[in-house]
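Predict the structure of Phosphoglycerate mutase.
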Amino acid sequence: METVFFLIRHASHDRLGSVLCGRMAGVTLGDRGRAEADALAQRLSAQRLSAVLSSPLERAQETAAPIAARQGLAVTVDPALNEIDLGAWSGKRFEELHGDPAWELWNRARTHARPPAALPPPAGSPTAGSGGESMAEAQTRIAAALDRLRRANPGGRLALVSHADLIKAALAHALGLPLDFHSRFEISPASVSVVVAGDWGLKVHSINEGAA
Ligand SMILES: O=C(O)[C@H](O)COP(=O)(O)O
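Done. Here is the predicted structure for Phosphoglycerate mutase.
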């Protein structure tokens, strides 16, 4: 039996395009984002969803809430849908990052680049030298979640509210696209990308639907 996944990027917030928010707390939807989330919930009301899952971050849960409410469902928070751990870059303005060689590498070589650690590791720590989460690790996380959710929900139609890079990683996994090509397609705020899963694997039905 097939399981349909509606991969939804959270709606707009006021720091979009100026701050690399990552997992920082307190990033909530503004007026525009709430209007986008309501419009998205209205569009999705034509679908019979069986579950609405969300990243733990506020911007995702606030996007998921009106979608779930319209369907008479509760939002289930799933840590597997969380944003990539961007370590020391979380909360930095994009203008601060420009010119940083590690940031340039992150943008051109996602297959092996890794954000820097948020805090220097203690001296002698076995984690010395480790950083944030690589996109490959995030892809493993979302791919495992899709497989787990598919097995638990045969015939289900699940909305998963997450983040741009997580959705790109999921689509790249389904398409067999190298992560270095992450910028070859767009995942906009409040957009929907549809992936169908079966015993045979994953099939991409659409990408970035409903983008403004
Ligand atoms: O701010 C970030 O973390 C990224 O630039 C975009 O991620 P998002 O999908 O959570 O906005």
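The mean pLDDT is 94.
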